[in-house]
Amino acid sequence: MTFFWSSWITLISIGCWLFILGVLLFVLKYKPDVEEDGTTGHEYDGIREYDKPLPKWWLVIFFGSIVWGVAYWVFFPAMFPKHWEGIATVEVDGETVPWTSHNELNSELEQNNKVFTANFEQNILAKADASGATSTLATLADMQSTLRHSETAPADLKAQIDGKVAELAPYVEKLSENPNALKVGSRLFLQNCSVCHGSNAKGATGYPNLTDNDWLHGGKPENILLTLHNGWHIGVDYKKEPAKLPMPAWRENLGEDGVRAVAEYVLSISGNQNDYDLDQTLVTQGKTLFNQPTNCVLCHGPEGKGMVSTGAPNLTDNIWLFGGERETIRDTLRYGRAGVMPQWQTKLGNERIMLLAAYVYSLSDKTTPPVTQQTAAPAPTAEATAN
Ligand code: HEC
Ligand code: HEC
């Protein structure tokens, strides 16, 4: 609220309060002339008016409300909210902070989380034989709290936190075999993740399938934990900074002809090459462009098999994030792509993330993909001739 409106409301409130107090004091002071029989001499339709004092109980409530009004102003940030914080406080994140509805909500969420955490430790971790995670979780929470409270965070603290998160991996693996943990995990998934990944986690265009063995960022429990904690490609406004697109746009750099050539080459190495009549001249041109050191190889690897370190997908299979049709691939190249996975660390907390990671890990296909990423596999053209 602006200063003008908060002053406006404050003045009206104080004005009403003074008016009511004034009326009451006036009525208490006012003494009408009374006749001998104790009436005021007024008579309406046979009803005669006495001048009796106001009942005590009524006065007590009335004055009580007036005093309560003042006490409320003192306790809560009711007057000039930005300037008077009130003396009421709540406890948030180990600190005593002035009362606001926002702080009160956070404080209640914290209480709620404590109950959840206790329950998680006793009924889920202990029963899944994963109690060892408790001390790691405690250290992790301390580190996260230090990071939140320090203005100039030690540069390596974030990396240490990621290291601690990864230490939870063996426990996530245990949870992924525990039906009770999976039940809670699946509920959390439906509430938080199904909007993008689908209620069966099989994904949609632009949102990866989590039940296969094809991973952008790695499918081991520690990879999934870190993906959930930190998210991917968040916090960049790609409209303002298109150069930061995770999959860059190439039309300016390569021109429409270049885009068509590389798209043809991508089709030729992909799993749906047989669906198209390929233009071999374009394929050859595209291959050269693809393999220039600052182009596609940089992220997708020498054979286009993808790299977990860059999150660039394997282009040699028939699993598509955005689509494998010729025109869709051209669009991907022309305009770039930016799939954003939100971070969940501050929204769900470490315990719920463990349950979600366990659930996702349990759904995933743990067999090794036929072509292992980042290894020098035989050139895809050899495969193509074999077909
Ligand atoms: C707003 C949409 C959205 C929501 C909500 C969302 N995700 Fe994602 N998620 C994405 C996108 C987009 C990607 C791909 C990121 C990329 O391109 O690098 C992704 C990637 C992932 C990955 C990595 C997949 C891989 O192949 O490496 C995992 C695991 C994942 N999400 C799990 C979850 C879970 C669990 C939740 C719920 C807590 C969730 N996501 C909620 C959009 C979402
Ligand atoms: C800076 C790293 C980087 C470079 C360079 C790069 N890519 Fe990508 N590419 C990515 C990432 C990351 C994604 C996934 C984007 C997402 O999830 O939003 C991607 C996605 C794609 C896709 C979509 C695949 C699908 O499953 O739908 C295609 C096709 C592709 N890239 C082709 C290329 C080609 C061809 C080039 C060279 C002209 C290239 N990329 C250069 C990082 C890169």
TrEMBL record:
<keyword id="KW-0677">Repeat</keyword>
<comment type="similarity">
    <text>Belongs to the CcoP / FixP family.</text>
</comment>
<dbReference type="InterPro" id="IPR009056">
    <property type="entry name" value="Cyt_c-like_dom"/>
</dbReference>
<keyword id="KW-1003">Cell membrane</keyword>
<dbReference type="InterPro" id="IPR036909">
    <property type="entry name" value="Cyt_c-like_dom_sf"/>
</dbReference>
<keyword id="KW-0349">Heme</keyword>
<feature type="transmembrane region" description="Helical">
    <location>
        <begin position="6"/>
        <end position="28"/>
    </location>
</feature>
<dbReference type="Pfam" id="PF00034">
    <property type="entry name" value="Cytochrom_C"/>
</dbReference>
<keyword id="KW-0375">Hydrogen ion transport</keyword>
<dbReference type="GO" id="GO:0020037">
    <property type="term" value="F:heme binding"/>
</dbReference>
<dbReference type="GO" id="GO:0005506">
    <property type="term" value="F:iron ion binding"/>
</dbReference>
<keyword id="KW-0406">Ion transport</keyword>
<feature type="transmembrane region" description="Helical">
    <location>
        <begin position="57"/>
        <end position="75"/>
    </location>
</feature>
<keyword id="KW-0813">Transport</keyword>
<dbReference type="Pfam" id="PF14715">
    <property type="entry name" value="FixP_N"/>
</dbReference>
<protein>
    <recommendedName>
        <fullName>Cytochrome c oxidase subunit III</fullName>
    </recommendedName>
</protein>
<feature type="domain" description="Cytochrome c">
    <location>
        <begin position="180"/>
        <end position="270"/>
    </location>
</feature>
<dbReference type="InterPro" id="IPR008168">
    <property type="entry name" value="Cyt_C_IC"/>
</dbReference>
<dbReference type="GO" id="GO:0016491">
    <property type="term" value="F:oxidoreductase activity"/>
</dbReference>
<keyword id="KW-1133">Transmembrane helix</keyword>
<dbReference type="InterPro" id="IPR038414">
    <property type="entry name" value="CcoP_N_sf"/>
</dbReference>
<keyword id="KW-0679">Respiratory chain</keyword>
<dbReference type="InterPro" id="IPR050597">
    <property type="entry name" value="Cytochrome_c_Oxidase_Subunit"/>
</dbReference>
<feature type="region of interest" description="Disordered">
    <location>
        <begin position="368"/>
        <end position="387"/>
    </location>
</feature>
<dbReference type="GO" id="GO:0005886">
    <property type="term" value="C:plasma membrane"/>
</dbReference>
<feature type="domain" description="Cytochrome c">
    <location>
        <begin position="281"/>
        <end position="364"/>
    </location>
</feature>
<keyword id="KW-0408">Iron</keyword>
<keyword id="KW-0560">Oxidoreductase</keyword>
<keyword id="KW-0812">Transmembrane</keyword>
<dbReference type="GO" id="GO:0009055">
    <property type="term" value="F:electron transfer activity"/>
</dbReference>
<dbReference type="Pfam" id="PF13442">
    <property type="entry name" value="Cytochrome_CBB3"/>
</dbReference>
<keyword id="KW-0479">Metal-binding</keyword>
<dbReference type="InterPro" id="IPR004678">
    <property type="entry name" value="Cyt_c_oxidase_cbb3_su3"/>
</dbReference>
<keyword id="KW-0997">Cell inner membrane</keyword>
<comment type="pathway">
    <text>Energy metabolism; oxidative phosphorylation.</text>
</comment>
<dbReference type="GO" id="GO:1902600">
    <property type="term" value="P:proton transmembrane transport"/>
</dbReference>
<keyword id="KW-0472">Membrane</keyword>
<dbReference type="InterPro" id="IPR032858">
    <property type="entry name" value="CcoP_N"/>
</dbReference>
<dbReference type="GO" id="GO:0006119">
    <property type="term" value="P:oxidative phosphorylation"/>
</dbReference>
<keyword id="KW-0249">Electron transport</keyword>
